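Friendly challenge for the regulars: who can give me the structure tokens for this chain first? No prize, just bragging rights.
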Amino acid sequence: MATGTLRAFVSSFSIIFLFKLNVFFCQQFSISFQQPSDCGVDSYFDISSLSCVKCGPNQVSSKSGLACECQTGFRVLVSNGVSITCLQCPDADQGVTQDGYGCIRCSGSVGENGKCQCPKGSVLVERDRNGNPLNESRCEACNATEPTFSAPDTTGNRCVRCDDSFIDSSQSCVCGISNVQAGGMCFSSNSLPTSVVPNVIFSQLANSVLSAWFSNFMYSSAAACLLFSNRTACQSLGNMCVMNMHSFSTINNDACGLYNTVYRATAAQGSSQDVSYWRANLPWLYYGDQLGLASRILQNEPLPVGFSFKGTQKNTNIELWAAVYSVRGEFLRWESVGGGNLQLCPDTPTRQQSAFTFGTAYKQSCVLSVSELLNGYPEPVFYDVFLVIQKPQEEKRLLAVPLLNINQQYNGQFTNEGSNMNNWLLTRRLMLVDTLSGRQILSSSPGVIRVASNIKIRFQLVPNTQKGQVYPPLMTVTYSDIPVTDPTIQTVTVSFSLEYTMDQEEARVKTDIALGVLGGMAVVHSLLKTASWKRRIASPLIDLLTIMKFLVFYAGDLANVFFIITVGTGLYWLIFFKAQLFVSVLLPLPAQEERFVVYVGCAFALKTVQFLHKLFVQLSVDIFFVDWERPRGKASKHVEGSGEAKSQASPVSIWRTYFVANEWNEIQTIRKINPTFQVIAVLFFLEVVGFSNLSLRDPSSDLRRSPEAYIPPYSLILRYGVASAMWLCIGLIQIIFFTVIHERFVEDKIRQFVDLCSISNISVLLLSHRCFGYYIHGRSVHGHADTNMDEMNTNLKREAENLCGQRGLLPNSDTQTFQISITNRLRAQYDRIIEPINRRSGPSRLVDASANPCEQSTKAYHTMNRFLGSVIDHAHREMDYIVKDKLLFERLIGMEFIEPLDKSIFYNDDSHSFADVLFYGNEAVLLIFDTLFFCVVDLGSQNFILAAVLTYLQQLVFRLIRNGMGCRNLASKTLVDKRFLI
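First reply, four minutes later:
Bragging rights claimed.
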């Protein structure tokens, strides 16, 4: 027991010891966090130990906080480079020498820092010419008279020649009472306003900042520029005006007001480079001081050189140069614009240089950290941008690129924000980042910074040019004002872009004319279709249903109009922009494409209405299979109760009807194109082959792009043109292949169905309208189809050898398909026979509960079969019919001129137009609908793969709807049990 207790005690002690040891082990590598500001006045921050160390006796912390220095009145006695020893000067009237190692009697006064001071205009002397210390310091006055004109330098240690402005104003180094001293210079007081407004206006923040930079240098720069034509001072003043956004106002003593005062006062000095707006010795900032000059600058005269996309004279290079100035007005260098000097967003040089390929819509945007801008741009740099113009065998010329500053104010109004060129005030010179003007103390961090968040260069094509001529480019800049609160988390979005535009008014007018003309034709065509529909339903009244039908017909025709216009527009821009030699057309801008997108949306919406209407009509068509088979004999049937056998006609097999019904059910959704192949082929050519690259907003026609190259944004018009053309071309190729090759040499399901009807001895009556439809005459020329294999083969052989009659409705005729226009009397009898079946699906109060539904269907089927068979056999004189050919004009407009009043009319139809009630006969509507669906999804998502997948799913869904509901309609209208439709 004792041993166990001892063992437990030892274990516990070991655990506690190891825990303490581990804590000690961890703590010996940790230090407390200290920084120089935590050390106070009697300690300094040791950069080796990263901690505060107390200074020695009579010592205080230096300004940097990283070392100790002697207190005021104490000199350095011993210094080994690491630590010092301080000793107080023995006499109270002694001061510490400038180097801090000695004490000296002052001839002047002792300053607050414990060192000797001399009056203004004198320099302090503490050693002789050999470096020996003097017993008493001397204050030697600088000779401020002619010819020396000397004064103490900024450190006060030596005499130097004073500034010329002092000498010119007072013939001394003293600025007279009547003059103004500023920036180390002396100016006459009547040259400029004595008080200036050193405020920088940040309009987006609705406040202004008292700028330390403006306070220190604005007046002196303006005065030196005006009085002494100091070029650096003039450039510095111009830079301050740029930092104040070139803003004009009634105030004449702000940065731009002082610039304009100097500009007007120096008119006698003439202009530079023969530019009237460029005053000698001044920076060129404005294109005049009045509004309304922009159109004369931008659209008065085109550039003397043209641009070409292809050929031996290919010229797509945009060469820009910039004169670069510092904020102090110093000229730094000439710089080729490209790479990254005007583009704040980081990127590869190859991609950045792509911006200067003519015709390439370039846009680069990114999000930058405010802390990065503060570190990377301590002072703003200013650019005067020029376009290089060089004709063959001529010297290189520079064309100034005008600037449109969106933030500029003219008498308190932002005149450059609108699109009206007459209100613009064009300027010169821009900066990218200004972290200087927002400082209220130069050594402190700025309270507000200003960033060029959007720079755009625009080229406008000369109207009707055939040589690629453009007007001078315009550079638009928008600045963002950012209050600096937490630079580490604050960000700003910046962008740089080039756009190319032309006058689109002519194209818009032509599109409107085409829309008006084709829209008018669509109205006429819709009226004809409405009139045809009214005749086919035998209704003379114009009611609400008629108006609705007209609107539906007009929706389909107007959809075709929009489709033709949009596809034509897309192909026009695709061909003429990509294939042009000399530039004569430029793509519409994204904002100008909105009208086109609206047209595409209208086409899709209207075509959807037409498609759904077609689908509804097909799902409600009346159909009946007329069985011509007659019993071949009689069969005995035992009668219950009587014990006798009764003889009756042998029953006719229903399986032939079921077989024909199933075949009709199968061909309801067959098409001339394969949807799966269509989707795969379109995706293959667009994404794999690379036809999608033709829709990029650049002049290149290459189908392959390097991964390192810049990929411009897509043009919606070109994207629609490429996608619609690809979908239509592949669809039309499939239709041609299906019609010319597949149907002729492989399988023609429509004609096979007609043959099947003849072999099965079954005719098909289709009524797509109340009094109009189609008839397939399937009466067998052999009289019977319910037979064995041997007889069937014999019958087919006889028919192949022309040993029997022809299949046509009329003698000696092969025409089996007809368009029929029936009388009201015939339709009424048809409805009367089918009414009990229709009533069964109606309200329960109209249904005869005692009637057997199966018996009703059987009775109605036999009644209808006998009735229609007798009508075809001309057994009803009051419901007889005639057979004739349709007139060519009737076929063209889809309307019958003769109204069937006494006799129905059967029109010969060798084109098998009964397929109009199937998908097969509406391939044009389906193809256009699928094309528009694919393009609309792509325009919304910019993704061909997503558009293809959704289009395929849409086709699948509507095919399932058509099959399912079509099967239900077939069963209800033909009285065939739905269970036998597989």
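The mean pLDDT is 86. The first strand starts at residue 43 and ends at 46. Your move, everyone else.
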